[in-house]
Amino acid sequence: MAEQTEFLTQSSFWFECPSLDSKRAIAEISGLSIEVSAAAGLETVSVGPKGQSVRQGKPTGPAKFQNIKVKVVATTQTDLYKWFIDVNPPNQGQASKWNMKGVNATVKSYAADNSEAAIWEITACYPTKYGGPSFKAGDGGLAFEEFELVHNGISRTK
């Protein structure tokens, strides 16, 4: 019997990484994409019978990955900021703790019954941008932290 397909909701996504003390609730994420260019792109390679345009539709070259932008719910933990500072020391000449291999991370989506519904593995990533929360007096909403990751690839494993 075929496995039943379930829609992914945008309500329960988590970011997990060994550089962080615990998983973080994702408010927003973008950049989980892969692009491979086709040979000759959209250009016509030749003209076939009856004047038909012929394109070469073979994928070529290495895959291109976008930076991944993540917005998570801020907590009292400072591990996300510390990870960024360890990799990108703000003072010139200060030693970086950057691991040239980066770290592997995951983005997980959970179903209504709290089971894992989808998983994206991020290979050899590290943060290149960090943004703390914006505060507004009288606003009772959640605070968010944002960061951007450079990586060597993504794969959807579930």
Textual characterization of the structure:
This protein is extended. A hairpin with a 5-residue loop joins strand 4 and strand 5 (53-54). The mean pLDDT is 84. It has 1 helix and 11 strands. It is 6% helix and 38% strand. The chain has one domain: Roll (Pnp Oxidase, Chain A), CATH 2.30.110. It is mainly beta and 158 residues long. The strands form 3 sheets. Strands 1-2-7-10-9-8 form a 6-stranded antiparallel β-barrel. Strands 3-6 form a two-stranded antiparallel ribbon. A two-stranded antiparallel sheet has the order 4-5.
What secondary-structure arrangement, pairings included, does this model have?
Blueprint: E1 13-16, E2 24-30, E3 34-35, E4 46-47, E5 53-54, E6 64-65, E7 68-73, H1 79-87, E8 103-110, E9 116-131, E10 144-150, E11 153-156
Antiparallel strand pairs: 1-2, 1-8, 2-7, 3-6, 4-5, 7-10, 8-9, 9-10, 9-11
Tell me the number of helical segments per DSSP (H or I, 4 or more residues long).
1
What is CATH's topology name?
Answer: Pnp Oxidase, Chain A
| DSSP helix fraction | under 10%
Mean of pLDDT: 84
Under the CATH scheme, the architecture is: Roll
Shape: extended
Which ranges are low-confidence, i.e. pLDDT below 50, for 5 or more consecutive residues? Answer: none
How many domain regions? 1
The rounded Rg comes to 21 Å
Span of the ends, CA to CA: 18 Å
Q: What's the total count of β strands?
A: 11
CATH superfamily: Hcp1-like
* CATH top level label: Mainly Beta
What composes the largest sheet?
A: 6 strands, antiparallel, barrel
Widest β-sheet, arrangement of strands = 1-2-7-10-9-8
Secondary-structure element pattern, one letter each: EEEEEEEHEEEE
| SS-based class | mainly beta
